[in-house]
Amino acid sequence: MGETIFAKIIRKEIPAEIVYETDTVLAFKDIKPQAPVHILIIPKITEITTTKDINGKLHAPILGDLFDAANKIAKDFGISESGYRIVINSGPDAGQEVYHLHLHLLGGRKMNWPPG
Ligand code: AMP
User: Fold this and answer.
1) CB of 88 shorter than 6 A to ligand 1
2) Band of pLDDT at residue 1, cut at 50, 70 and 90
3) Residue 102: helix, strand or coil by DSSP?
4) Atom of ligand 1 nearest to the CA of 89
5) How many whole angstroms separate alpha carbon 71 and alpha carbon 57?
6) Is the pLDDT of residue 23 over 70?
7) Looking at the DSSP assignment, which residues form a beta bridge with residue 68?
8) Is 93 part of any domain?
9) How far is Cα 59 from Cα 96, in angstroms, rounded to an integer?
10) Does the residue 116 lie in any domain?
11) Site to substitute for ligand 1 among 18, 40, 85, most atoms within 8 A of C-beta
12) Do 104 and 38 contact (CB within 8 A), yes or no?
């Protein structure tokens, strides 16, 4: 699978509304927000295209970094206490469009269950 648009965002070759960045993680506003807060949180490494590429032992540190970022961003956007949803779409049936692992952090409104 070729390079994704997220690799270009990491290299700052195309613009994004970046809200958080570390050596390992980048987070930016989703271009088509599905909630008042909709942030994508991605690892800077490109080797995890989808959850089936995850090797728990190998990738534990980066997965930790993604969730640390989610906690920080949720606080920054004022949704830490009201609650939020973290979504990872994995593969065609889940509607995954970009094959670079990403957490969707969604909040600022009441969420429905089951998801569509
Ligand atoms: P998924 O369907 O889980 O692969 O989600 C991909 C997400 O990336 C979608 O919610 C898109 O709206 C979002 N997206 C695609 N291109 C961009 C971009 N250039 N900047 C920000 N978000 C994007």
Assistant:
1) no
2) low
3) coil
4) 3
5) 22
6) yes
7) none
8) yes
9) 20
10) no
11) 40
12) yes
Read off φ and ψ for residue 90, nearest 5 degrees: -130, 105
Give residue 116's pLDDT. Answer: 86
| Ligand 1 centroid to residue 96 C-alpha, Å | 9
- The answer to whether position 51 is within a domain reads yes
Q: pTM to 2 decimals? A: 0.98
Q: Is 97 in the pocket of ligand 1 (CB under 6 A)?
A: yes
Of the chain, the percentage scoring pLDDT greater than 90 comes to 97
- 89 C-beta closer than 6 A to ligand 1: yes
Structural domain of 95:
5-107
Note if 100 is an active site residue: no
Q: How many distinct structural domains can be found in the chain? A: 1
- Asked if residue 96 is part of any domain, the answer here is yes
Token pair belonging to 41: 């949180």
pLDDT digits (tens, 9 = 90+) for 52-84: 999 999 999 999 999 999 999 999 999 999 999
**CATH number assigned to the domain comprising residue 14:** 3.30.428.10
Residue 24 Cβ < 6 Å to ligand 1: no
Share of the chain above pLDDT 70, in %: 99
